Amino acid sequence: RNMSSAGPEGRKKMRECEGLIDSLVYYIQGAIADHEPNDKATENCVCILHNLSYQLELELPESYVQSIYMQRRNVPSSDKTPGCFGTRSRKVKEKQQDTPLPEEKSNPKGVESLWHSTLIRIYLSLIAKSTRNYTQEASLGALQNLTAGTGPMPFAVARTVVQKANGLPGIRAMLHVGHPAVKKTAVSLLRNLSRNTSLQSDIARDVLPDLVSILSECVPGSDIACETTASICYTLFNLTQGSSHNARLLLSAQGLPKVIAISMNDSNMFSKASRAASVLLYSLWSHTDLHSAYKK
């Protein structure tokens, strides 16, 4: 667990270690099957996988990237979609955001397991069943890592979490736990998920009222609470920017007075939260059909 946080070279060596990732996944599966999601070894395993998933798409070996890309080059010419992990270009990645991953292997090995739906479902299971804060935080953090970035992998993982594995109820529950780091990581994961336009209606319906409910009535009093507040505001920005319906949801959840209060604080410590709230307010005002409701 300590070695997995040693930096890019350490992560690379551990991902390449034959059988290591498979063994970690196997152990966690056994713990869940035996109804033992709270033991210390399971926590350690999940924390290792969390660290090994950090910057995964950027750090995959180029040979691995190219082999997946070559598999995708034989698609019909009418399909203009670039291959999975095909290029590191940001513009191409933005075009790829709705590109599905190549068909999943039924029996993934090694690094392939890190973004496989089997492990995604394991993380969601631990989020729902474990009462150990570090296990919850590491499971949420692994999913946060996997949904970061603009390539096809993050968006495919996001679809699995939201639509295929019905992960939103478990993530929503983590918004209301007392542990600040768990809450912060849950919000950061939702912020990543909310960038995917095809998932925004599902996310708004299931968790937007909860996000508003955990917003402080005033400016938060600690760094971690300030970061959480900023992430909530940016998540709400993603959900409402292109949807007047979602903006109305925020309004009906009594979110506007909270966002205004946060935006009006200009102390240096809380500038991140205040700036995020101001960005959200500016975006909400772009829905001209809601101006009369806002004024009321």
Q: Care to describe what's here?
A:
The structure is a single chain. This protein is mainly α and 296 residues long. The protein has 2 domains: 1-64 and 108-185, Leucine-rich Repeat Variant (Alpha Horseshoe), CATH 1.25.10; 196-295. It contains 17 helices and no strands. The chain has helices at residues 8-16, 20-33, 40-52, 56-59, 62-72, 90-95, 117-129, 133-146, 152-164, 168-174, 180-193, 200-213, 223-241, 244-252, 256-263, 271-285, 291-295. Helix 2 packs across helix 7, helix 13 (223-241) packs across helix 14 and helix 15 packs across helix 16 (271-285). The longest helix has 19 residues, at 223-241. The protein is elongated and about 60 Å long. Residues 68-98 have low confidence and may be disordered.
Beta content comes to under 5%
How many DSSP-defined strands? 0
Instruction: Specify the overall morphology.
Output: elongated
CATH architecture designation of the largest domain: Alpha Horseshoe
Give the CATH H-level superfamily of the largest domain.
Leucine-rich Repeat Variant
The number of helical runs is 17
Radius of gyration, in angstroms, nearest whole number: 20 Å
The oligomerization state is: single chain
> How much helix, percentage-wise, in residues?
55-70%
Give the CATH topology of the largest domain. Answer: Leucine-rich Repeat Variant
What is the name of the CATH class of the largest domain?
Mainly Alpha
Distance between the termini: 54 Å
Secondary structure class reads mainly alpha
- How many structurally independent domains? 2
What low-confidence regions span 5 or more consecutive residues with pLDDT below 50? Answer: 68-98
Mean pLDDT: 85
- Major β-sheet profile: none
- The helix/strand series, from N terminus to C terminus, equals HHHHHHHHHHHHHHHHH
Organism: Callaeas wilsoni
Biased composition (Basic and acidic residues): 94-107
Keywords: Cell adhesion, Cell junction, Repeat
Subcellular location: Cell junction
